[in-house]
Q: What sequence folds into this?
């Protein structure tokens, strides 16, 4: 079984898969090495302050620009912000070049990105049945076409028997519900969720093994309860649901905006849009963004650029970071600086652990010097370089030590 697991295991490692958050303490002070984040203390602290304002609902319709040289952690900080906010907060990430690659107008692409970043929390009450399954009885007809049954379920205070139809029997079978399981059943949709196995059955023989079984307490009180459920839905999802066919019309968006404005006080979620490589946008897109930031339903727009003085795309004018001056006036700029050598060493170690690669101290030293002289991104791409794989591929000139491989790369 262990050999089968090793064969079927699938490794999915991205360039920023080691990022777990911003690595800040309770006072928003950056830790030296935490949650995959190293260095860039001032930028991380600034990002943490922005996140706190987002969570408190005190910032929206603003623009923040992470500006710095390549490989200084701008995208990593944005991902750390997304991880800190959690999956319940709409955090849309796009590269500016995507706007020109889609089969729609530039303004429509930006509009959809903005509306994906605006979430509405919809609260609804549903009636549920929660308890420990005592017994399941299923009766089949002679032809097997119809199924009926009874479900006996209990809490610490009461016990009830429910009649089951074909739909509920199929739902219970799909979740593999057995006597002794603690379940939650939504009466409206018929959805069955298995919370775990009752502690009262913990001593029973379990073929799956104790390690794979979650034990929970038997629920208390009434079996039937009313529970408030909160769903976060983006404005773009509401647009898609309400459109007839084809493209989304401005009139529909106006109607949805007016309705959302009524829900905003108690129902509006935190909203963030991250645009990477913002210097790739052109003057038309910048003009649209400038206007969108004045909208009542505008998200917090976070941008990243690795350019200094550069030409604004679509014009002959040069401007800091490739952004028009009128948009720069709205932007809070957070600078990122090149990493120190000690920070680069720690980042390389973190990436080695993430990619399950062991490097000698000499190889780590070579990678650190390469990252200092070129870019960190270039050095990290060489971590998983395997000399044996290169030899098998027939590259005879690469049969030397890892240091020799790194030396050749530095000379090139």
A:
């Amino acid at each position: 079984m262990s050999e089968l697991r090793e064969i079927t295991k699938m490794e999915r490692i991205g360039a920023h898969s080691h990022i777990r958050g911003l690595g800040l303490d309770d006072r928003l002070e950056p830790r030296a090495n935490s949650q995959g984040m190293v260095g860039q203390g001032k930028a991380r602290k600034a990002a943490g302050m922005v996140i706190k304002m987002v969570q408190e609902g005190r910032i929206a319709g603003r623009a923040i620009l992470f500006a710095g040289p390549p490989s200084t952690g701008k995208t990593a900080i944005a991902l750390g912000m997304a991880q800190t906010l959690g999956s319940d907060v709409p955090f849309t990430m796009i590269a500016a070049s995507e706007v020109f690659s889609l089969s729609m107008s530039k303004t429509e692409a930006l509009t959809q990105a903005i509306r994906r970043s605006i979430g509405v929390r919809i609260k609804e009450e549903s009636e549920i049945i929660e308890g420990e399954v005592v017994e399941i009885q299923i009766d089949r007809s002679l032809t097997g076409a119809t199924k009926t049954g009874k479900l006996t379920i209990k809490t610490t205070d009461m016990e009830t028997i429910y009649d089951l139809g074909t739909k509920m029997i199929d739902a219970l079978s799909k979740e593999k519900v057995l006597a002794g399981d603690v379940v939650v059943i939504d009466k409206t949709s018929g959805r069955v969720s298995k919370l775990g196995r009752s502690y009262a059955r913990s001593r029973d023989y379990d073929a799956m093994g104790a390690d794979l079984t979650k034990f929970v307490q038997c629920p208390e009180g009434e079996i039937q309860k009313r529970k408030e459920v909160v769903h976060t839905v983006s404005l773009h999802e509401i647009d898609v649901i309400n459109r007839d066919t084809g493209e989304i019309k401005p009139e529909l968006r106006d109607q949805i905006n007016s309705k959302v404005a009524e829900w905003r006080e108690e129902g509006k979620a935190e909203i963030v849009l991250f645009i990477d490589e913002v210097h790739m946008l052109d003057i038309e897109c910048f003009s649209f963004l400038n206007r969108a930031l004045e909208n009542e339903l505008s998200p917090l727009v976070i941008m990243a650029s690795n350019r200094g003085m550069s030409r604004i795309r679509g014009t002959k004018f040069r401007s800091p970071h490739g952004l028009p001056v009128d948009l720069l006036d709205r932007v809070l700029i957070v600078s990122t600086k090149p990493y120190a050598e000690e920070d680069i060493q720690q980042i390389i170690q973190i990436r080695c652990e993430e990619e399950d690669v062991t490097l000698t101290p000499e190889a780590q030293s070579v990678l650190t010097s390469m990252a200092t002289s070129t870019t960190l991104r270039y050095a990290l791409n060489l971590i998983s370089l395997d000399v044996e794989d290169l030899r098998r591929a027939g590259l005879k000139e690469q049969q030397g030590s890892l240091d020799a491989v790194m030396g050749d790369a530095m000379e090139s």
Notes: The first strand starts at residue 33 and ends at 34.
